[in-house]
Design a protein that fits this description.
alpha/beta; Rossmann fold; two-stranded antiparallel sheet
Amino acid sequence: MKNVQYKHTEIAVKKKLGQNFLTDRNITRKIVASSGAGPLDNILEIGPGFGALTREIIELCPVFTVVEKDPKLAEFIRTEYPQLTLIEGDFLDIDLVALATKKPLRVLGNIPYSITTPILFRLLENRRSLVSATLMMQHEVAMRIAAMPNTKEYGILAVQLQAFCDINYLFKVGRKVFRPQPGVDSAVILITPKKEDPIEDADGFRRFVRIAFHQRRKTLLNNLKESYNLDTVESDTLKLRAEALSIENFFQLFRQLKPPQ
């Protein structure tokens, strides 16, 4: 376990929390600028750590909310930035709807590699409470989110997020600007929920996407036949693999499906 020192405060880095702290202020400025954050926004920062991103946000919006799970880092933020609303706990347990009661949230964060996917799906489930989310994550995951059909990265994550949100891959961040230095590069993406869901049964659609990709090398016919009545679907479509379908193709196929009798 490595220690990181900041302003005479030394804190042990917790590997299980996926802690890697950003040290390049040019990157933090770029993240905040790319987010579109302004003084009137209802901002939520995930995992402020030593406040690298926090201090840039404060220059635009002096009062906002941060959520920090590590008790020692939470105490650091409480002491260093007493004007902020600090939620000490796990982001996955936070009631985002309650935080967005007065105004939708603009979320920012350098999110832990270890729980990136759960955080993304949590944000997706609460998309009606969001203006946007500007997030730094493992480069490989960012590529999976922004992936196009017929690529190895294209899968459940890409389809479910792109179906309900506009995705912008912003820029890559090298591993050398972190302490401790991770073994992978990072990237920043901007997620903006669409104003209206393009499909009525959002939960049913997300379940359908998971089933369609259940075994990637199998055709849609083989993946879907146990869960849906496929009589109304074109046979040529069912011969394809899920990775061949665009987001609009997924919508069209879902609308044709009927649950088995």
